[in-house]
Amino acid sequence: MATGAAAWLPFARAAAIGWMPVASCPMPLAPRDNSKKEDELIMLNVSGRRFQTWRTTLDRYPDTLLGSSEKDFFYNEETKEYFFDRDPDVFRSILNFYRTGKLHYPRHECISSYDEELTFFGIIPEIIGDCCYEEYKDRKREKLERLQDDQEENKDAKLPNMNIRQTMWRAFENPHTSTMALVFYYVTGFFIAVSVITNVVETVPCGSTPHQKDMPCGERYTVAFFCMDTACVMIFTVEYLLRLFAAPSRYRFMRSVMSIIDVVAILPYYIGLVMTNNEDVSGAFVTLRVFRVFRIFKFSRHSQGLRILGYTLKSCASELGFLLFSLTMAIIIFATVMFYAEKGSSSSKFTSIPASFWYTIVTMTTLGYGDMVPKTIAGKIFGSICSLSGVLVIALPVPVIVSNFSRIYHQNQRADKRRAQKKARLTRIRIAKSGSANAFLQSKRNGLLNELLELTGTDEDEQRLIRSTSLLQSQHHHLLHCLEKTTAHEFVDEHMFEQNCLESALETYPTHSPSLSSQDSGTFCCCGQRRQTRNPLPHTADTPQGPLQELSALHIQSSQLMHPTSRSNLNLRPDDSSRINCKGGRVTTTIISLPSPPSLREGHHPHGPPQRRVPAIAPSIQTTTSSTPTNIIKVSAL
Amino acid sequence: MSTVRHRPEGLEQLEAQTRFSRKELQILYRGFKNECPSGVVNEETFKDIYAQFFPQGDASTYAHFLFNAFDTDHNGSVSFEDFVMGLSILLRGTVQEKLNWAFNLYDINKDGYITKEEMLDIMKAIYDMMGKCTYPVLKEETPRQHVEVFFQKMDKNKDGVVTIDEFIDCCQNDENIMRSMHLFENVL
């Protein structure tokens, strides 16, 4: 409920006296306010910085941490204050939310830390006020994109137990992963270049020989060129077939642009093989040889710049379309005008409107070949108008295309930079982590040593060894030890692991790879849940009843959990709910700062203003008390 | 946004003029000032605040009438004094005062008589707050019928208008109304 509503509720109720005289039926009884507490100041100590506020201020939002009894967990008996070990700067915005009803996003804060604080205190980010919401969403989107990029990077990672097919595909897609792939990459690149050059040189007239006129090299050295062509086509065919074999989804591969280019590049050769002897179609066959030039597009696998250009054109499709359309319109108009203007003059080249198209195009693009020029005065006037307008029409969409290109290009640059940084960062982290992993193995060895020492060593040696591991470390190691005992497996370091892998491909070891697993757990599972048991307002002390069933049903995403549970039940089973919410890795912060006032009775006394952000929910809540699957509103933070 | 600021009279004076205790006045003012930092409520804000309580329907018309009832000096804004005086009557006043206040609310042009048209407006405003989704379904002539019933009850001399005395008389004889007048006494 917004602040104002909470404060003005007594006023609204008092004003209800205005309905009494016109009422046709007796009024229902007013709820009794049994817990009449004096309003008191609450002290909140956040990492040393003290905040004070009225209890009623916090009670405004009963399904958040501070507004519910959950804060009792943080109550410090000695100092009579609530202590939170969190960031005091971000807490400021959170407390202001209670005071003013508006949640603001401080721009200098990191988006993830802000999100974490919100989740901790049980506030859904959708409440962020209009002033800050756009900024928040933008930053959120950036972070997601970055995460996605990272995910894609992880796909490159070599999974253990990849079969031949997967290895091959990985080699094809990322040439830098293995030497073979790199060699293949360069070889194909070389042959593409050779093929293109051959096609070009084929048509150059080689020196004239006495008994023959000037003829292109292709016809002079037919055999040589044919051999070259055959070699190239063979390489390309092999490459295509290998890719087809390795592709995870062959159907999708065949539909992709690159594969179509591959096919178009090698098909003319095969068609040529088939129909050399037929005179009629040899003309068509010659045309087919044109398609050999498409081999040059195979370079786009090798060049990122080409790919970017391709993306740009694709993303600017609408601008290009507009350019084309407006040009066509202008061409037709001016061609018509020029034709009729030049009709009078004799020996005019403007024989028909289509013939004038050529003039218009050449003039509008400021080429001005001069093979067709207007001779009449009217024609010259319109001709000059034509060339002036041409410049304008062409100049308009160009900045859009350029800016698009620039954006995509810079994105790519950033992606590359991030990749490079990430490599360095991960290496350092890995070194640090392996330090700790090694610590465990080290301590295991020390354990053995300890036993030895107990038997043979002196007291000082023992003391030294024991002190070398802190309490935290030793407890951690004990834990790992327990795990070892539980699974009847042992931790080993990477080197030995790979050795064992090679020796016996069947054994499966518990992978002690730190980076992948911790990352997963860190970034994707965060379940913040809040349920409230307290009444929102001290005045309206309704007994928490059924109406809240809807709310509790609302915040469970999966439909299996549609059984209406009261709020108190949910509180008693935190484990279940948390497990459920973590299912599928979907984050559903089950915070409903919806109109929580319990007096949500059907029809009669609609009560409780909805949050600004979710106005559509209120009607559906109030008209159906029975929680139904149709009213599921997924309130998700991430 | 104008920087109209209004500071209310002192706490003692308000205490004397209304029937609220010091603490209650403090609580009331804090809430009031929080929502309207400038110290006065204009009609728009009033409508917004009131609409928050009735999300299903359209509370703006009724809020308009309510605003006029609170704005006793008719200067277009409700200051804290107006607010608190009104509340004092509604929550701590005698039945007579409350009925007086209600009459004032219904009498839109404040001429001392409630006509059928005025009552119809008020009734429509009240029914508007219900919104569309009601059971049974709201019909067009429901407010009108309600007004007829009201006038039949209140208009003793059948002259087509209800005066203050008729109103108070009639209400005092009606048990339901009397009982409901005491309903909200413990609101604050």
Automatic annotation (TrEMBL), chain A:
Residues covered by the BTB domain:
38-107
The record's Pfam families line, in alphabetical order, gives: BTB_2 (PF02214), DUF3399 (PF11879), Ion_trans (PF00520), Shal-type (PF11601)
SUPFAM superfamilies hit by this protein: POZ domain (SSF54695), Voltage-gated potassium channels (SSF81324)
Indicate whether Chloroplast appears among the record's keywords: no
The protein's location, in the record's own words, is: Cell membrane; Cell projection, Dendrite
| InterPro entries from the UniProt entry | BTB/POZ_dom (IPR000210), Ion_trans_dom (IPR005821), K_chnl_volt-dep_Kv (IPR003968), K_chnl_volt-dep_Kv4 (IPR003975), K_chnl_volt-dep_Kv4.3 (IPR004056), K_chnl_volt-dep_Kv4_C (IPR024587), Shal-type_N (IPR021645), SKP1/BTB/POZ_sf (IPR011333)
Sorted alphabetically, the Gene Ontology BP terms of this entry are: action potential; potassium ion export across plasma membrane; protein homooligomerization
Q: Where is the signal peptide?
A: 1-24
Q: Which GO terms describe its cellular component?
A: dendritic spine; neuronal cell body; postsynaptic membrane; voltage-gated potassium channel complex
Organism from which the protein derives: Periophthalmus magnuspinnatus
Q: What name has this protein been given in UniProt?
A: BTB domain-containing protein
Select a single GO molecular function from the record's annotations and give it. Answer: metal ion binding
Q: Where are the transmembrane segments?
A: 180-201, 221-242, 254-275, 320-341, 353-369, 381-402
PROSITE patterns found in the cross-reference section: BTB
Q: State the UniProt keywords alphabetically.
A: Cell membrane, Cell projection, Ion channel, Ion transport, Membrane, Metal-binding, Phosphoprotein, Potassium, Potassium channel, Potassium transport, Signal, Transmembrane, Transmembrane helix, Transport, Voltage-gated channel, Zinc
Q: Which SMART domains match?
A: BTB
Q: How does it sit in the membrane?
A: Multi-pass membrane protein
Which reaction is catalysed here? K(+)(in) = K(+)(out)
Q: Which domain of life is it from?
A: Eukaryota
Automatic annotation (TrEMBL), chain B:
Cross-referenced PROSITE patterns: EF_HAND_1 (PS00018), EF_HAND_2 (PS50222)
Its GO biological process terms?
A: regulation of potassium ion transmembrane transport
Q: Name one Pfam family in it.
A: EF-hand_8
Boundaries of every EF-hand domain copy? 58-93, 94-129, 142-177
Does Ribonucleoprotein show up as a keyword for this record? no
Among the GO molecular function terms of this UniProt record, one is: potassium channel activity
Cell membrane recorded as keyword: yes
On the tree of life, the source organism's domain of life is: Eukaryota
Give the bilayer topology: Peripheral membrane protein
Alphabetically ordered keywords of this record: Calcium, Cell membrane, Cytoplasm, Ion channel, Ion transport, Membrane, Metal-binding, Peroxisome, Phosphoprotein, Potassium, Potassium channel, Potassium transport, Repeat, Transport, Voltage-gated channel
Per the record, the similarity remark reads: Belongs to the recoverin family.
* Record's protein name: Kv channel-interacting protein 4
